[in-house]
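User: Last request for today: this protein with FE2/S2 (inorganic) cluster, please.
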Amino acid sequence: MYVCNCKGLRENQVRTSIQAGAHKVAQVFHACGESPQCARCVHRIVTLIRAEAPRTRRDDVSRHA
Ligand code: FES
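Assistant: Here's the final one, the structure of the complex with FE2/S2 (inorganic) cluster:
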């Protein structure tokens, strides 16, 4: 499923960039090698960041335990 139609970013690609440490929309675009165009996808990307962030933090904690 596409999250960003302008740049063709898929949900899995965005989730992967978040899990790799991107926690802002600009960082997600940068990690995907793109930059925002119309910004209509920002809300969807923020939703994914919020959904993935707690999971990523838990993983970080367990890796350091
Ligand atoms: S839909 Fe993502 S920049 Fe336009």
